[in-house]
Amino acid sequence: MMYSEKVMDHFSNPRNVGEIEDADGIGEIGNAKCGDIMKMYLKINNGIITDAKFKTFGCGAAVATSSMATELIKGKSIDDALKLTNDAVVEALDGLPAVKIHCSVLAEQAVRSALSDYYTRQGIDPLPIVGEIHEPEE
Amino acid sequence: MEKRFIYADNAATTAVSEEVLNAMMPHFRNSYGNASSIYELGRNAQRDIENARAKVAAAIGADTNEIFFTSCGSESDNWAIKGTAERLAKKGKKHIITSVFEHHAVLHTVEYLEKQGFDVTYIPVDEKGLINPEDIRNAIREDTALVTIMYANNEIGTIQPIDEIAEICKEKKVLFHTDAVQAVGHVEIDVHKQGIDMLSLSGHKLHAQKGIGALYIRKGIVIPNLIHGGGQERNKRAGTENVPAIVGLGVAVESACKNIAEKAEIITPRRNRLIDGILKLPYTRLNGDREKRLPGNLNISIEGIEGESLLLMLDMYGICASSGSACTSGSLDPSHVLLAIGLKHEIAHGSLRLSIEEDVTDEDVDYILEVVPKVVERLRSMSPVWEKMMKGEKYE
Predict the structure, then answer these.
(1) I need a labelling partner for B297 at 20 to 30 A (CA). Which of B13, B137, B265, B368 fits?
(2) Could you tell me the pTM of the whole model?
(3) For residues B149 and A85, what is the distance between their CA atoms, to the nearest angstrom?
(4) Long-range contacts of B309-312 (CB under 8 A, 24+ apart)
(5) Where residue B154 falls among pLDDT bands split at 50, 70, 90?
(6) How far is it, in rounded angstroms, from Cα A135 to Cα A31?
(7) Per-residue pLDDT, B395
(8) Residue B384 with chain A: CB contacts under 8 Å
(9) Taken in order B298, B303, B307, B309, is the CA torsion positive or negative?
(10) Which positions of chain A have pLDDT values less than 50?
């Protein structure tokens, strides 16, 4: 199985690893049983994602997609972040092996999960804005 | 710390040894005759094939004409199992006994036979990765055609009670096949003394090239021919012989079986040092019985991390290893072997298998023991599972 150089770069030197103490939204997706868990922390100011960090339990692709997803949403508006698709993450990583595409879906869903948490904290029902969060199948 | 290159995945494959390569070389450009040809060049090839057959036979206690060359261990397994099934089904025997943690070359073969109407009993293994021979005795029925149990497990290295199983099969008059791909060259095998009816072995696990294997079929056992064509392998497996590979296999098996005890004496203490060193990390466990295992094998579960990430990071330090995580198996489920010994999915995902030989030195062991904790710490520091474990929360 071949990972692109970009994937290996983001795996070896993941961007934005860690936690945000006073995060405005925290999302978690996946389960240990299926082998991938992503936790995403967002700092949001005036509708702009000023900081994003993650922790991931998973394979090389899971780490790389988490890292890339945080890179792609940092400094962006919530609206833009909600438009982030797994395809965009895959493209930014110069592709993923077919069996690893589900990792990019997890990364997309982790961002949405964190945004959902942000709205919930604001007392706003996230469902109409963020939509349903899809947990991976066991 | 200076980066090293350490190959610790000999259960996956091995390098062709110099001795094997030297034996093979003349057969490419000089001694290239077809073994079926009448002239000297051909006769020489025939002679060299038969010499190789004699070497393989002697190394496992078989007679020369009981050894059939194949292209790999999987082919040997397929031939032994499907061949026996086909023949004995005609006598109304359509029941096969195997274990839950066989190699896929066996498991997928019996699953195929299940679809053809065969009944298969999967014997469980205990938490140490060992089969209870009595379970096999109890599973044997009137219509049992074959018992096929691996000699040593490829992931956790546990050595099965083959003598007892063979004894039971003999008593019950049921054929016994063993996939010994991981065992040949690592444990003493004498097929006649042990009462083994069929045995599969593979060249590339013991320093021959990839693409060559053998099946031992005890004299008197008839299974259908595998490949129809010319008269090669006594009509059983047609196709012009791969002379260089066969010659290489002969040298490799002879060499691997020559000094098993001496090799084990070198490897076992190093392997044990690796086990003890890695087990010093919190939340780790050794998979498989500690004593009844191949000398070079260790398999440890490391909680809070995932196997593929671990392998990729070890690779950056020049360490070649293996894991039972889903991500390395190409499916969503972690290793069926680790699940069979009772590991939970989340723990099975984070396993590390090292399979070493004598070339892994004491200094290499030191290096591995320096690198593994470093890599584990790094992966745990970014793992939400580890974070929850440390907070005493459940992770499901």
Answers:
(1) B137
(2) 0.94
(3) 48
(4) B309/A11, B309/A58, B309/A59, B309/A60, B309/A62, B309/A63, B309/B379, B310/B350, B310/B352, B310/B375, B310/B376, B310/B379, B311/B352, B312/A8, B312/A11, B312/A60
(5) very high
(6) 9
(7) 61
(8) 28, 37-39, 55-57
(9) negative
(10) none
Q: What is the ipTM of this complex?
A: 0.93
Of B170, B177, B254, B174, the residue nearest B208 (C-alpha): B254
- Do residue B349 and residue A62 have CB atoms under 8 angstroms apart? no
Residue B189: its pLDDT value, please?
Answer: 98
What pLDDT, on a 0 to 100 scale, did the predictor assign at position A133? 87
Residue with tokens 């399979």: B355
Residue B234 phi, psi (nearest 5): 50, 50
- In chain A, what residues touch B338 (CB-CB under 8 Å)? none
- CB contact, 8 Å: B396 with chain A? yes
pLDDT digit string, tens, across residues B32-56: 999 999 999 999 999 999 999 999 9
The answer to whether A17 contacts B384, with C-beta atoms less than 8 Å apart, is no
Give whole-number Cα distances, A64 to A20, A55, A98, A122, B28, in Å.
Answer: 19, 11, 15, 30, 46
Put simply, the chain B residues between 296 and 335 with a CB less than 8 A from any chain A CB are 304-309, 312, 316, 325-327, 330, 332, 334
CA B328 to mean position of chain CA atoms: 18
Distance from C-alpha of B350 to C-alpha of B333, rounded to nearest angstrom:
12
pLDDT of B384: 94
Which strand ranges, in their side-by-side order, compose the sheet holding A36-45? Answer: A25-31, A36-45, A48-57
Chains A and B form CB pairs within 8 A to the count of 74
Q: Among all chains, which residue has been given the structure tokens 């060259």? A: B185
Integer Cα distance of B234 and B312 in angstroms = 46
Residue B330 pLDDT > 70, yes or no? Answer: no
User: What are the CA-CA distances from residue B361 to residues B6, B370, B375 (Å)?
Assistant: 9, 14, 21
Chain B residues within an 8 Å CB radius of A14: 382
With bands split at pLDDT 50, 70 and 90, how would you rate the model's confidence at B332?
low
Q: How many CB atoms lie within 10 A of CB B180?
A: 27
B324 confidence band (pLDDT: 50, 70, 90): confident
Helix (H, G, I), strand (E, B) or coil at B150: coil
In this complex, the residue of A11, A35, A55 whose CB is nearest that of residue B384 is A55
Q: Where are the beta strands (DSSP E) in chain B?
A: 6-7, 67-70, 95-99, 119-123, 144-148, 175-179, 198-202, 213-217, 284-286, 297-302, 319-320, 351-355
Report the C-alpha gap between B91 and B119 in whole angstroms: 15
A36 has a chain B CB within 8 A of its CB: yes
Enter the DSSP assignment of B62: -
